[in-house]
Structures are given as structure tokens and as C-alpha cells.
Specification:
The chain has about 500 residues and is of the alpha+beta class. It contains 14 helices and 16 strands. It folds into 3 domains: about 5-120, Pnp Oxidase, Chain A (Roll); about 125-275, no CATH class; about 310-355 and about 395-490, no CATH class. Helix content is about 30%, strand content about 25%. Strand 13 (about 245-250) and strand 14 form a beta hairpin.
Length: about 500
């Protein structure tokens, strides 16, 4: 496949090597003479930096006291490029003495991110943001990408004799053509649109499908927070958390002028390979390679951009995505926090005047004014009791949720009610391990579906939603299965107890 690698994936698609004298190295403290620096991704896609120094038996001890290095700079006037390594963690330092030689000292580092700059005076025309953990099934992409590589070779004889029968110049043109890759064009308004594209398979680690989001609007290029919002909503629509590992900036001719290289830094227990190899979990059903998918996704992104501040989607998505990598009992707590966040934002936005209290708030304040002063004075050493008193007029979260679901026209059945009731157990620290653990797994999945439905409805989606991505079953309203059917037929969970 004739790819131009620089525009297809991030800079660390291959190892980068730096040696003196072509490169200069700047540390915030004195170091031995540097022989070589290499920067690459390790097998978990973390950034790994190895520095080889001239031998210094005392350097390992000295550098271990430095902790986190704020900044290391690698600069070349010859190549007109620089790399700035930020928030660098020292993984280890080794000094080895070799017989009949001066030995060597090496340092293994891991920066939070790297700034790459091509030292030129060029304006950014577009940005590409690079992500691991793209969808396994690329059914939502309906447009195709075509590649063509042309090569023209010309041969000319100098001082060619004119009476020779053949022509002087021999030329041949060679073309390689192929199609591969898919993309979608999200038309959001007349000026500000984005492209979401797959990344060529040869750029992907074997355990991940990668995607790229392309921005050409000045507003999107300048607004990093807005691009984070795009990441959240696209992750939601793809049913998996996109893991950002870089962003590249290009001039009008497609030349890379700078890049931010990011370390995913997932903790060891959150195995990035397992996350990326996990099956898709789309919130809705996409028709295979249908142009309607593109329009549907564009509409929901547009709706999200309109509502994101008033409904505080950013706060909601923090808990939503953190829940993705946790155990079921922790997952349910964070999903509950996400639902509570979006419910409060919606009620505030609508200036909801429904029955969230037993009596009128102002009347309640009037009735308890004198009692409240005495109560606060009497129980000043018991702040939790004071909080309970102040909360006497509220109907409680369960009632407020029912009102919220009714107002947004989200139908719930017995299954959803059972799960919403059950979520109080992990929230209040009850001993869930005495229950069959498989129930907790199922309940957390159903709670996830409830929250997905809330988000979809608020975004204006009126179609079916998915219960389980392994089956084609889609549902418009409440879940039409019992807990037993969901456990044994839909999810096909194995029955076991955590105590076994």
C-alpha cells in the first residue's frame, strides 16, 4: 500500500535516534557526556527514553535523587528540529564498568509527553489527533480512501547524435493504485466540520484498531478543551473510550510542523492491550456502511455541542469513562454519580418546578426558621444530623430520578427499577460480596444501559438502543426481559459466587 507515513500516524511509529554532534542535549542538571538517545513506544505504547552516557560510577546515585525531571531538550540546528521531554520519570539508572574500556552509564526514562517542533515559520492549517482503541467493527464509516503513488523516470543522453533513429529521451511512468481505509465527514455547520478516519493497519499495534480525528476549523485548532469534548462524544458513540496518544499539526502543504506525543500512562492493572482488544459496545445499532450513520453521528455531535455546557457533559463523562476500567461495584458508584450529575444539570437548566420537595421550599423555610436555629445550636457538634435536618423537605434521590425519567420521556420497567434500587448497596458500602457476584456484573451493565439511554434521549436520538453488542436485539423503550433472561440468555453469564 503506497502510504505517506508522516500523515498516517504519529511520529513514534518508529524509533527515533539522536547522536552527537548532529544533536545537542540540554538537562536541568550536570550530566556526563551523552553518546546517544533513543525514543520509542514500548509494548504497552508508553513512551520509553533511553540515554547512553560516558561512564560515571557516581551518576546513578546522583540522578536517583532528582525524582521527576521537569524538562529535557534535544535540539538540532542541522535538522532545524527540537524535542522537549516534559515531566520525565526516572525508571532506572545503570552504570557498567567493562574491562579494558571506560564502561557505560545508561538512564531509562518515561516522560508524560513530548513536544516536537520543526523550527520554521509556518501556520497550522489542520490538526490530526491520534487514538488507540478504535472500534473493532468499522461499520459506521461509509466513505472510502484511495491511494495512488506515481513515479516518473527519465533518461537522457548528453550530446546525443541527431542522426540516430531513436529519440534522445527515454521516459517511463509507474503508478501504484490501491484503495484502503475508511472515513466519515461530519458536517456540523457551514464552516466548522470534522473528519473521522481509520488508520492504516500497518500503523496499528496488533492489539488495537486506531482512528484519527481531523480538524481544519480555526476555532477547533485553537480550542483544546473543545477538541476534548469531541473526543468524549465520539468515544460515547463508538461505545469505547478513545485513548489519545498524540496530535500532529500540519501546514497548508501537508508538512508536519509540530507534534504533541502523549504517554497513555494507564496503570498496570488497567492492561491497555485487554482494553483495546475488548469487543465493541455500541450504544445504538449502525447499519453496515450506510450513509445514514454519518448523518446520525453528525446530528448527535451537533446536539452535544449545543448542550454540553448547560448539561455539564464534561463532568458527567469524567465519571462515565472512569467507570469503564473498574470492578462492577465501583463501576456502579461512578455510573450513579454520572446519572446524578446529568440529572441535576437538566433540572437546573429547565428550572424544574416539579415535586422535588414535600412542600413549597419558601413555606418550609418559614415554618422551620425558629426550630432550625435551636436545632443547629443543640446539635452543633453533630454536623451530619444538621445536614439531615436541612434535607428534611427533599423527596430523595429515588423520587427525583423518577420525575427526571418522566420529564425526558424515558420509560423504565421492573428490571430498571430493581437495578436503580440495588445501586444503593455499593454506594452505601453494603457487603456485596455475600451476594452472587454475577448479579453485580449484570446490574452494572444494565445501569450503563440506563445512563446511555438518558444521554441518547437528551441528544435528541429517537431510535432503538442496544442491550448487548453480541446480539442484534434493539429496544426502543424499557428492557423487555427479566433479570433471569438477561443473565442466562442475553448476556449468557456463568453462575458463580465470589466466595466459591
Amino acid at each position: 500500500m503506497p502510504y505517506y507515513d508522516e500523515v498516517e500516524w504519529e511520529l513514534l511509529q518508529k524509533e527515533q535516534l539522536f547522536e552527537s554532534p548532529l544533536w545537542n542535549f540540554e538537562f536541568p542538571f550536570k550530566v556526563p557526556k551523552i553518546k546517544k538517545i533513543s525514543i520509542k513506544r514500548d509494548e504497552n505504547y508508553n513512551i520509553q527514553v533511553k540515554i547512553s552516557f560516558e561512564f560515571d560510577i557516581h551518576f546513578s546515585e546522583k540522578v536517583s535523587n532528582e525524582g521527576i525531571i521537569d524538562s529535557i531538550k534535544i535540539v538540532s540546528d542541522f535538522f532545524s528540529e527540537e524535542y522537549i521531554l516534559k515531566n520525565v520519570i526516572i525508571l532506572n539508572s545503570v552504570s557498567k564498568h567493562h574491562i579494558n574500556s571506560r564502561g557505560s552509564t545508561s538512564l531509562l526514562l518515561s516522560p508524560s509527553f513530548i513536544y516536537y517542533n520543526r523550527l520554521c515559520d509556518k501556520d497550522t492549517s489542520w490538526i490530526k489527533e491520534w487514538y488507540l482503541n478504535g472500534p473493532k467493527e468499522e461499520v459506521m464509516f461509509n466513505r472510502r480512501i484511495k491511494y495512488k503513488k506515481s513515479e516518473f523516470i527519465e533518461k537522457e543522453f548528453i550530446d546525443y547524435p541527431q542522426d540516430f533513429k531513436l529519440g534522445n529521451i527515454f521516459s517511463i511512468e509507474s503508478n501504484q493504485k490501491s484503495s484502503g481505509g475508511k472515513y466519515m465527514f461530519c458536517k456540523l455547520n457551514d464552516d466548522d466540520n470534522i473528519i473521522i478516519t481509520t488508520v492504516p493497519k500497518k500503523m496499528n499495534p496488533e492489539w488495537s484498531n486506531n482512528i484519527c480525528i481531523i480538524y481544519a476549523s480555526e476555532d477547533y485548532i485553537l480550542n483544546k478543551d473543545l477538541r476534548k469534548d469531541f473526543e468524549n462524544i465520539i468515544s460515547f458513540l463508538f461505545g469505547r473510550k478513545l485513548i489519545k496518544i498524540g496530535e500532529s499539526y500540519y501546514d497548508s502543504k501537508g508538512h508536519k510542523i509540530k507534534e504533541h506525543i502523549i504517554n497513555p500512562f494507564l496503570r498496570d492493572k488497567f492492561n491497555i492491550k485487554n482494553i483495546c482488544m475488548d469487543s465493541d459496545n455500541f450504544p445504538i445499532h449502525y447499519e453496515y456502511f450506510d450513509s445514514k450513520n454519518e448523518q446520525l453521528i453528525s446530528d448527535m455531535i451537533t446536539s452535544f455541542l449545543f448542550l454540553k455546557e448547560s448539561l455539564d457533559f464534561s463532568t458527567m463523562f469524567i465519571n462515565y469513562w472512569n467507570s469503564t476500567f473498574l470492578l462492577p461495584e465501583s463501576k456502579m458508584i461512578l455510573l450513579s454519580a454520572s446519572l446524578e450529575s446529568i440529572k441535576k444539570s437538566w433540572l437546573k437548566k429547565k428550572k424544574f418546578k416539579g415535586e422535588t420537595t414535600f412542600i413549597d421550599k419558601q413555606l418550609f423555610k418559614t415554618l422551620v426558621r425558629d426550630i432550625k436555629k435551636q436545632f443547629h445550636k443543640r446539635f452543633k457538634e453533630y454536623p451530619k444530623l444538621i445536614g439531615k435536618f436541612d434535607d428534611l423537605n427533599n423527596r430523595g434521590n429515588k423520587k427525583n430520578l423518577e420525575l427526571f425519567f418522566k420529564e425526558i420521556n424515558l420509560g423504565i420497567g421492573e428490571v430498571e427499577k430493581e437495578v436503580l434500587e440495588y445501586r444503593n448497596r455499593p454506594v452505601h458500602g453494603d457487603n456485596i460480596f455475600s451476594e452472587k457476584y454475577i448479579d453485580m456484573i449484570l446490574y452494572s451493565e444494565i445501569y450503563h444501559i440506563i445512563l446511555n439511554r438518558v444521554i441518547l434521549i437528551l441528544l435528541g436520538y429517537e431510535g432503538n438502543y442496544r442491550i448487548n453488542n453480541q446480539i442484534q436485539s434493539c429496544v426502543y423503550n424499557k428492557i423487555p426481559y427479566s433479570i433471569k433472561e438477561l443473565k442466562e440468555d442475553i448476556y449468557q453469564f456463568k453462575q458463580y459466587s465470589i466466595e466459591e
